[in-house]
Amino acid sequence: MLTTNEELPEDLVIQILLWLPVISLLRFKCVCKSWCVLISSQNFITRHLPHNQTISNKNKNGSLLLLQNTSHNYVFAKLPYETIEISSTQVLPSLYFGFDTNVGVEIIGSSNGLVCLHVEWGNIILWNPATKKTKVVPKSRISYPQSKSCLLDLGFGFDIKTNDYKVVMILNADDYSNPELTFLERKNFNIAEVYCLSTNSWKKVHAWVPDKFVSYNRHRTYTKGMFSWYGYYRDDWLPCILSFDMSNELFLRTTIPDDSAVGYCNDNWRSFFVLNELVSLVILIEDMERSESCIHIWSLLEFGVRDSWTKLFTIGPLMRIDRSFGFLQNNSMLLKNNEGQLLLYNLFTEEMTDLRFGGVSSKWLQVIPYMESLISVKGENDLEDQDSS
After folding, report:
1. In whole angstroms, how far apart are CA 67 and each of 108, 227, 340?
2. How many helices (H) and strands (E) are present in the chain, helices listed first?
3. Dist. CA 111–CA 128, nearest whole Å
4. Which of 24, 34, 192, 303 could serve as a FRET partner for 256 with CA atoms 20 to 30 Å apart?
5. Chain segment 330-339, per-residue pLDDT in tens
6. Is pTM beyond 0.90 here?
């Protein structure tokens, strides 16, 4: 039996547990062996996920995950939607990940409680911060005998059709099939591979991969099965987003609105986030003389359709604001001022709250939406789980 109380039916116990938050379930694994087996089972984890993602639970359990490189280590913290206070500040386990503070660590993305990290010139890592489980993604064994390739960018997301988590890797390659050609004469092209957690292996993407796309570092978003990078094409230099459909494994290009429409100027800073489950373009325009900024927000209604960009609203002018880092619960925006303080701006009340998380550098702060889950980093072909605690 799952409980020592003979009067409580097993099915009822399961239904109660399904509605509990992750932190409670992790504690309850210590109640008894049968509860530990139940909560650790794939069936329970799969059933718990949709309960955890209801609107009420998203507001209660959702948060932003912040990763910052300090002078000594990498520190991550959570900003819960409910309390709106920085909490759970911890040091990233550098010994396990095999890096020091001189090596860059990027958050590639997050989906259903799993976070994908990339260590500069090193490993791709899947990490569940709630369970403290981690997994180093194996290196791709796909070879390209007549070309030399290098990493261009990475993406991470969930394939709803196959119930699988995927890492997409875009590589830039030079053709060396003709040794007599000079470097400038060789054909240059992009190729893509996909890693599937369920099989613990890489495979080629056989669909069209845009050859001349160049991504801007750390401008990535993920929503509803589509991972997107912000960048430009080398042939026309037009800024755009390149999106990858995790289920169909196809790429789509969407150019952003004209400069005249978005209000371009020399002191313009662009970024991409998710707002109301839509990829959204955030344009911060600074007036250096007045030390104030205005923020314009656009949302993309349909991938691949440029005319579907819709302007939502303009914020400001705001004093001494130089960066935005995303949206909190669809009604607040995380901002940074010139003094390195993190602030929360309410889009409806226009109130500004100091989060008392000072000394922030735009270069070293990374922020992604995050929802705790019990999802395992272990694929079907993995021999054992790994623990970063």
Report:
1. 12, 20, 15
2. 7, 24
3. 10
4. 192
5. 678 888 888 8
6. no
